[in-house]
Amino acid sequence: xxxxxxxxxxxxxxxxxxxxxxxxxxxxxxxxxxxxxxxxxxxxxxxxxxxxxxxxxxxxxxxxxxxxxxxxxxxxxxxxxxxxxxxxxxxxxxxxxxxxxxxxxxxxxxxxxxxxxxxxxxxxxxxxxxxxxxxxxxxxxxxxxxxxxxxxxxxxxxxxxxxxxxxxxxxxxxxxxxxxxxxxxxxxxxxxxxxxxxxxxxxxxxxxxxxxxxxxxxxxxxxxxxxxxxxxxxxxxxxxxxxxxxxxxxxxxxxxxxxxxxxxxxxxxxxxxxxxxxxxxxxxxxxxxxxxxxxxxxxxxxxxxxxxxxxxxxxxxxxxxxxxxxxxxxxxxxxxxxxxxxxxxxxxxxxxxxxxxxxxxxxxxxxxxxxxxxxxxxxxxxxxxxxxxxxxxxxxxxxxxxxxxxxxxxxxxxxxxxxxxxxxxxxxxxxxxxxxxxxxxxxxxxxxxxxxxxxxxxxxxxxxxxxxxxxxxxxxxxxxxxxxxxxxxxxxxxxxxxxxxxxxxxxxxxxxxxxxxxxxxxxxxxxxxxxxxxxxxxxxxxxxxxxxxxxxxxxxxxxxxxxxxxxxxxxxxxxxxxxxxxxxxxxxxxxxxxxxxxxxxxxxxxxxxxxxxxxxxxxxxxxxxxxxxxxxxxxxxxxxxxxxxxxxxxxxx
Length: 653
What we know:
By secondary structure, the protein is mostly helical. It has helices at residues 5-8, 11-19, 24-37, 53-56, 59-68, 86-137, 145-192, 198-380, 385-439, 453-561, 564-569, 571-589, 594-607, 610-630. Helix 2 (11-19) runs antiparallel to helix 3.
């Protein structure tokens, strides 16, 4: 409780100090009623009732008792002229009370209202301090609760200060309203009363003051009852929507946060798996590509090295062949020179043979002439027969020799023609050999024109062999290039097939991701359905609470509509209302949603079909598997408090 002087001050004692004591019973009764209205203890229930008729009786009963008790007799004195009697003064006092007491009563009721408001705010402040002390050792799960408590504490202090100011202002109003009233009463009393009858008039005034105090108490009780009813209604009308909104927002935030966490974790796992698979495929493709490129480079370098070595070897062989060709050309030139000399000798022999043939022709002509001469002589000489036979034999031998000479001449002419054609061919082939030798870049000297057929016969097989070797080497190079190109084509086709496989895997991943998205959307729909069921449960709870509140308010209104005498006679009923208010306040303070959450869960389990429950269980199992696959630690809550998982946070010991 606050140490405010206005708060700790007893209002009845201040009233007595300012306006007088009055009767002892009225003072005690006012103090007890004030304590009942404002400073009631936290447990006003008594274990043993005390039989005090003057305290437990209501104001109406006391009025009836006081009305039934007769006024003590006053000795009759003769009326003096110029002095009013007692009935006139009492009528004047009654008229003064009827005119002047309404603002005083309004001010007193206003002070009671602000006093009760200050008392309520003080209790709320004490309760918030207790909550802050508990939260100091057991911090809450919600980070904004400390700021909320600080703001609430500040607001309560401001309201207490405002109530203190209004109470002080109301006290000043009451004092200002009562001062002229009391002054008027004292003046009227001094003017209308005789000195011997002062005690009797004082008793009458005390009775009137007692009646005024009873009226004030009645008005205070009525105003207190009305204030309690209005404040209860305002409290319930203000707290229930806030409580409903707070619970709805809290559960919605929890569901949204849980769904966002699950979606974020699923997206993170999917993206991480896709990135890992993509990076693995990229690394694998890059590794395979590098490996193949290295192999290709190695094979190409090896093949190039082999080709270069072979070309160098061929170049060396070609150089050697050029050298041998040069040697052969020089030999052929020598042989051509030799053959030219032989050809000249043969031509010379041919010339000799022509000369011999001419001579033979001349001899044949001469022989014919001689034969004719001899025939003539034979005719003239018939007796020379043996000599003629010998001459015939000589002639036969000579004709054979002539035929042999003719054959030799024909053979020489044919040989000469063949030698001429062979010499022309040899010259053409020698030109080709020179061009080939010049194309190979050799430093061979120009050869002399060859004319011998033997040189051509010797050169032609070598040339054919070199051409065949060159063709075979070119064919081998073509075969090697063809194999290399086929190998490259096969590797490229393998790479294309790998790329197609990768595209297929990517399409499968996309299909899996789309399936996962559809499942997530279904899970979100299920969460929305559960949230809608939870909202429906909250609405039903709100309807039940509103029904109970309406029932309680109706009972209070029906009680208030009853006779005031019954209400005033039942002080225990008033204490019961106070106890009900305390119980309601305690229920509001310790309100929990544990039973509500359990009822909602049982309602969901009872209303959902078996297939939907199995589907939810499967989704929960998959989500648990995804969470376990993440291998991330969960964030530890502050103060080692358990998270709210079933609608109720356990209270730590």
